[in-house]
Amino acid sequence: MKSIVRRTAFALCSAAIAASASQLHAQASSSFDKSSGGPGQAYPTKPIRIIVPYAPGGSTDVVFRILAPRLTEILGQQIIIDNRPGAASTIGLDIVAKSAPDGYTVGVNNIAYGANPTIYKKMPFDSEKDLLPVTLVSIVTLVMTVHPSVPARSIREFIALAKAKPATLTYGSAGSGSANHLATERFAHMAGIKLLHVPYKGGGPAVVSVVQGETSTLLATIPSSIQHFKTRRLIPLAVSSAKRNSALPDLPTISEAGVPGYEAIEWQGLVVPAGTSQNVIRTLYQATTKASQGADVREKVSALGADFVNTTPEEFDQFVKRELSVWSKVVKEVGIKID
Fold first, then answer.
1. Most buried residue, 65, 118, 242, 271, by CB count within 10 Å?
2. What is the pLDDT of residues 267-308, one digit of tens each?
3. What angle do CA 108, 110, 111 make, to 5 degrees?
């Protein structure tokens, strides 16, 4: 099982990012031309709604709220962030899948997209047929945090505490199948401990729960938790990436801190309803890439521990297919289930 845990979606994510990075600037030029949304139609001609399938305050929400003003400038139409949390992104993405394929309803997908078809017995939409990829926008490192009342200040101390008090420590998540849920279950499996899962409707509420002491720990995204480290309302133990993160350079990785080989990375992409024209998809991809190249935008996102990727639609399509295949195996092996 450890071989599967150590060589799955997160390794593939790194490989996909490395393979595409050298092509990005050539494929998305600094110039930007609005496309045709269809025969005789310019695009866009009205506001565009981006459905974030999680509550406000989580990393997925934060990253796209940073991007939204710049996208509005580039596209010449207002970008509206519409939070539709629930069922680990399934509720929000179902709305997208059932929307008109005209480019005016765009969805955000993430790591849960690859796991949900295996976790949920019945999905309201087909992940492989009902939504089309636009671009893999960003990756976000997770950080293991604890409430100050938890008597652990390192990964080894946390594991020892969990083994001394099995099935008593609780962890929050943005919902069953979310990045926090998947990553924490893999951590617990590799560490040989048992933690109790408390799902919320988004990363924001999950962060609030651990800040208030309702849950013991949270593998939080850096963007949603970093402000609480300065006030000591949360204690960071280690980051989930293979290498230390520039936003928290003094914090060790979980792998070096006590769970060798562990790695977990959250990602966010854009999708549109099946049937959307390739011209519209290309316009959204080019606009998103240009928006992420702004120095102010990159600085804000980097400071939060996130990094822009901006793969092409074709590259993102291949990435999503790998995620669906890999997470099907991991969910079954680890035994992740809906609570």
1. 271
2. 999 999 999 999 999 999 999 999 999 999 998 888 777 889
3. 170
